[in-house]
Design a protein that fits this description.
By secondary structure, the protein is an alpha/beta fold. The protein is built from 9 helices and 10 strands. The chain has helices at 27-30, 35-38, 44-47, 50-63, 83-87, 140-146, 159-172, 189-204, 212-218; strands at residues 2-4, 11-13, 18-23, 67-72, 98-99, 102-103, 125-129, 151-157, 176-185, 208-210. The protein has a 6-stranded parallel β-sheet with strand order 7-4-3-8-9-10, sandwiched between helices. A two-stranded antiparallel ribbon has the order 1-2. It is globular. Bound molecules: tricarbonodiimidic diamide. Tricarbonodiimidic diamide binds next to helix 7.
């Protein structure tokens, strides 16, 4: 066990039982012409965390610790996308419609791929999730249980949507969750800040938060 300097108090990292989860670092959210851009957001904010996230992934890769990459992805026939989800959002371009990088949030489309600098390697788990949370309709909890994973380190986008939803789902399933604060980002800085405060309030009601440097220092 290794102790990480974190808020609201130190986080016990348990090698062999800890996986990294990188949420939705896909072109749809991070590059111009994707879903995030079509919703009217400044995607450059999200692109800025790619180098930190790459360092975090590298820290896990060097030690051969498990890495899970998620993508928000729907089947091409959209049978796994509720009509309410399609209706909401940008009134111009909806999920499944064709943008500059193919059909928005549809599996297999160019925009649905993880950005090149963070591309998964063979042996890493890639989960296509139809919801904002990573456990809904993915079977991931069963896979993590089979791997005896009890601790999850989170990164990715966006902090208050898919990252927070996944972390709350994980918390309810009994995982000890740590969010790396400089490897997550929101289109709305105030939402990122509020999410971090919500996670660590009340004695870590959802989990812990730490900068990447705290993890690097612990494993130097
Ligand atoms: N719109 C927004 O902030 N996020 C999403 O739709 N999905 C994720 O957070 N991945």
């Amino acid at each position: 066990m290794t102790t990480i300097a974190a808020r609201p108090y130190p986080y016990d990292f348990v090698p062999g039982h800890t996986a990294l989860v990188v949420i939705d670092m896909q072109r749809d959210f991070i590059e111009k012409g994707g879903f995030g851009d079509s919703l009217g957001n400044d995607v450059a904010r999200l692109e800025a965390i790619v180098p930190t996230t790459a360092r975090l992934i590298d820290l896990f890769r060097k030690r051969d610790w498990p890495i899970i990459h998620t993508r928000e992805a729907h089947k091409p026939d959209l049978s796994d996308c509720p009509p309410s989800k399609i209706r909401r959002g940008n009134p111009g371009l909806h999920i499944g419609e064709t943008g500059a990088m193919g059909r928005l949030l549809v599996a297999g489309e160019p925009g649905n791929q993880i950005v090149a600098d963070l591309a998964p390697l063979d042996g890493e788990i890639v989960v296509d999730k139809p919801g904002k949370g990573m456990f809904w309709a993915t079977g991931l909890h069963t896979r993590l249980a089979a791997m005896q994973i009890t601790h999850l380190v989170f990164a990715g986008v966006t902090t208050e949507v898919c990252v927070q939803t996944s972390m709350r789902e994980a918390n309810d399933r009994g995982y000890e969750c740590l969010l790396i604060e400089d490897a997550t980002e929101s289109y709305f800085p105030q939402f990122k800040a509020a999410t971090i405060e919500m996670i660590i309030a009340q004695g870590g009601i959802v989990g812990w938060v730490a900068p990447l440097s705290a993890l690097e220092a612990a494993f130097a």
